[in-house]
Amino acid sequence: MSPRRRTNHGSPDVHSGNSATHGEVIQAKKSFPLSRTILAGLLVFYIVFPLALHFSTSCQRAVVFLTYVAPPSLILNLSDTSGFEPEHVVRRFKLETSEPGHMGAWHISSRGDSLSTSSDSETSLSDGRPVFLYFHGNAGNRGIKHRVQLYKLLSKIDCHVIAVDYRGFGDSSFLWPTNETVVSDAVDTYRWARRHATGPVLLWGHSLGSGISVQTASLACAQGVCPNGVVLESAFTSVESAATTHPIGRPWMWILQVLPSLRETYFQRWTEQLNSLAKISDVTCPLLLLHSEDDSYISYKDSHALASRAKESRMDQSTVEYHLLDGYGHNHICRHPQLGSIVRQFVSGLVKDSSSPSQ
User: What does the pLDDT read at residue 48?
Assistant: First the structure.
């Protein structure tokens, strides 16, 4: 009688006919929870989250402003400005707002200037040099490194820079930002600068800050106290346009394609305040638009559309400049080797208007 065939473990292979089936059952049990997890994730990502955005203004504000995104490795300590010295002298101060609260701010002085006392920012701004008010985009605060790099560049071409954090950002008063609060903070910053500056006052808005700058400038121009110039960097035409190209919003755009009736209700809360294309014609001061063709967040076509609309509304189209660059993405136009020359030439063509300061 021939011996029984044994397995590698030495035991008779009496159950070898069922071993494969048993393994398949175990594998199925393992894969089923995994499939459910993937399905649940897709459900949340493509259904639950878009619905939350649709019905919750809090969720919308959280996605638009991203105040909770502040990677320490990319941000300077707001209370320690020694990183600017000795080339740049910086004063940290609080700028009181018309509504309850304050904004944390830096004054980066023009090259060669110095600050020594608590009131020197106001005094220093009366030296006749240009003053840039910098309004940053979403996430982080005024201390993000690419923003700091721009301040240094503007200081080197002999301009003052006032960089603020809207309430809800950085070391400013805490609140959940809205369209109204960020624009109100920008208007307060502009009014403060006009009270103290004797040279040209310009707005510089990057990304989300471009929309805030356009709204601020349009309000000021309507009151007869238009800025001397506005620089829009990586600008969008509207929040809706930015959402269709931004990596955060792109995955959900299929919903608006399938149900186009939702488009208006999705963005209706944002169209009035942050629709730069609708407001750019109200900005009558000189404009400088900068965009990188490889911007993966906001399409350069938005800046092109803004420049075209602005020129259509002006008799003198030379007061609108548009520079399409390449290789600097969304955040790093500050690294362009000719940026200093571009800005210096733009500023040199400005003439300080005779409008009385806004109080």
Answer: 64
